[in-house]
Amino acid sequence: MGALWIAHVTVTDPVAYGRYAELAGPAIAAHGGTFIARGGRFVQLEGRERPRNVVARFPSLEAAVACYNSPEYQAALDHARGASERELMVVETTD
């Protein structure tokens, strides 16, 4: 089964977060991830609103978690820490 990586983000330091984004994209792609939503328009219906929302599709839950734990993604994440407030989850799809 596939999986979705879903991030809800408030960017507090655009320069540092930009460095994260430059590195995170290739790390995600290297693990089979493809972006299906990345900062587009949204309507918050419930819960806490975050101005940036990102969804990536992965071939499996395990691939998404392996991406998160990879040295490449962790190097990218170093730039997001302190430059954003985030929630990130991976959810298995029903396909």
Automatic annotation (TrEMBL):
Residue ranges constituting the DUF1330 domain according to the UniProt record: 3-93
A Pfam family that the UniProt record links to this protein: DUF1330
Signal peptide: none
SUPFAM superfamilies given in the database record: Dimeric alpha+beta barrel
InterPro entries in alphabetical order: Dimeric_a/b-barrel, DUF1330
Protein name: DUF1330 domain-containing protein
Annotated source species: Rhodovulum strictum
Lineage, uppermost ranks: Bacteria, Pseudomonadati, Pseudomonadota, Alphaproteobacteria, Rhodobacterales
